[in-house]
C-alpha cells in the first residue's frame, strides 16, 4: 500500500498528468527506499514486486480516466511482436518476482532450458542489437503473464501493422502509434523502483531478463546476496 501511495503522489505532483520526465526531486522515491531499507527478509521481496505492479496499475487506471484511449488498442492474446527485442530490461525486484513464479509453476525441464542463456555482451552495444525472442514466450503467449515485467505491461500499440513493420525493420526505426500514458506509467514506476533500490545501496542496474533469470534460477543464494548488497547480476546488466 505504501508504494501505491507513492504512485499517487507522483501523479498529484504532476498536476494529475503523468509527466514524461518524471519527478524532479526524490520525495516519493523515499517510500520505496523506506520499504527496502527495512527489508532483510527474502520473503518480502515478492510483496514489493507486487506493490510495484499495483502502483503501475493505479497510474494507468487514472490515466485512462483523464486521457482516454483514442481507439481500442491492438494488443491481444497471441500477438507477440513486442516479445522480440534485443533485450527485455527489468529491475532486480521484478526479476525475483518472475523467478519465483517460474520456480512455483514450471516443470524442471522448462526451468533447465532457462539456465543456459549467455550473459550480456559488455562493451559492443551495436553487436548486441539483434532481435531475440524472449525465452518466456511459449506457443505465442507469455508463460509468466501475471508476473511479467513492467516494460511488458507498458508497451502497447494502436495498430498491429506498426508492430509488424518495426519488427521486420529490426526495430531500427520503431515508429509505433502508442497510448503514451501507459508507457509513461511504466517509466515512472520503473524509475521509482530503481531509485528506491539505489538509495538503499543495493544493485540497481537494469538487467537483461534472459541472462539475469539464468543467474537467479541457478543460484539459490541470489536473493540473499542481493539483499546483502552484492552485485549479483553484473554479468547480466542491460547494455542498450
Ligand atoms: S516476459 Fe512475457 S510479455 Fe515480456 S517479453 Fe517475455 S514473453 Fe513477452
Task: Write up this protein.
This protein is 48% helix and 5% strand. The protein has one domain. With 240 residues, the protein is mainly alpha-helical. About 9% of the residues have low confidence. It is globular and about 45 Å long. Helix 3 runs antiparallel to helix 8 and helix 4 crosses helix 9. The strands form 3 sheets. A two-stranded antiparallel sheet has the order 1-3. Bound molecules: iron/sulfur cluster. Iron/sulfur cluster binds next to loops.
Question: TL;DR of this structure?
Answer:
With 240 residues, the chain is mostly helical.
Secondary structure elements and their pairing?
Elements: H1 2-13, H2 29-37, H3 43-66, E1 84-85, E2 89-90, H4 92-105, H5 108-113, E3 132-133, E4 137-138, E5 141-142, H6 150-154, H7 160-168, H8 180-199, E6 207-208, H9 209-218, H10 222-227
Antiparallel strand pairs: 1-3, 2-6, 4-5
This protein binds iron/sulfur cluster (SF4).
Shape: globular
Strand content: 5-15%
Largest sheet: 2 strands, antiparallel
Structural class: mainly alpha
Q: How many domain modules?
A: 1
Total helical segments: 10
Straight-line N-to-C gap? 33 Å
Q: Could you give the count of β-strands?
A: 6
Give the SSE order as H and E letters: HHHEEHHEEEHHHEHH
- The average pLDDT score comes to 84
| Low-pLDDT segments, ≥5 res | 7-27
Question: C-alpha Rg, in Å?
Answer: 18 Å
Amino acid at each position: 500500500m505504501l508504494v501505491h501511495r507513492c504512485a499517487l503522489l507522483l501523479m498529484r505532483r504532476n498536476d494529475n498528468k503523468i509527466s514524461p520526465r518524471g519527478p524532479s526531486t526524490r520525495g516519493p522515491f523515499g517510500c520505496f527506499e523506506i520499504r527496502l531499507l527495512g527489508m532483510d527478509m527474502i520473503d518480502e521481496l515478492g510483496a514489493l514486486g507486487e506493490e510495484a505492479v499495483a502502483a503501475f496499475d493505479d497510474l494507468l487506471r487514472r490515466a485512462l480516466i483523464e486521457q482516454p484511449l483514442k481507439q481500442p488498442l491492438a494488443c491481444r492474446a497471441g500477438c507477440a511482436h513486442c516479445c522480440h527485442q534485443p533485450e527485455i530490461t527489468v529491475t532486480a525486484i521484478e526479476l525475483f518476482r518472475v523467478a519465483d513464479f517460474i520456480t512455483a509453476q514450471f516443470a524442471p525441464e522448462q526451468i533447465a532450458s532457462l539456465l543456459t542463456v549467455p550473459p550480456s555482451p559488455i562493451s559492443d552495444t551495436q553487436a548486441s542489437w539483434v532481435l531475440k525472442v524472449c525465452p518466456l514466450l511459449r506457443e505465442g503467449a507469455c508463460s509468466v503473464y501475471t508476473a511479467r515485467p513492467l516494460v511488458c505491461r507498458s508497451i502497447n500499440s494502436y495498430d498491429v501493422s506498426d508492430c509488424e513493420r518495426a519488427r521486420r525493420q529490426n526495430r531500427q526505426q520503431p515508429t509505433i502509434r502508442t497510448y503514451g500514458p501507459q508507457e509513461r506509467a511504466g517509466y515512472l514506476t520503473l524509475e521509482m523502483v530503481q531509485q528506491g533500490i539505489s538509495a538503499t545501496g543495493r544493485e540497481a542496474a537494469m538487467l537483461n531478463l534472459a541472462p539475469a533469470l539464468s543467474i537467479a534460477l541457478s543460484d539459490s543464494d541470489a536473493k540473499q546476496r542481493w539483499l546483502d548488497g552484492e552485485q549479483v547480476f553484473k554479468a547480466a546488466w542491460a547494455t542498450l
